Amino acid sequence: MAGNAEAIENVMANGDSAGRGLPAGMVLGAWGGRSAIPGRWLSGLAAAQEINRRLASIPSGGNA
Questions:
Q1: DSSP letters of 46-61?
Q2: Is 28 exposed, middle or buried (CB count within 10 Å of its CB: 0-12, 13-18, 19+)?
């Protein structure tokens, strides 16, 4: 995915990474759907299983 390295670098930078990570994930998800968010971004989260369950419940392929 174009820009993936830049997005990771921004999120991993020093400072308030949560303040950058949240919008980065939101933009990637809105732009490319669930598959645009790298699995490794979710796998290390304490709530990864719950996040995946909720993501799976969102209908895909529709025109919003």
A1: TTHHHHHHHHHTS--S
A2: buried
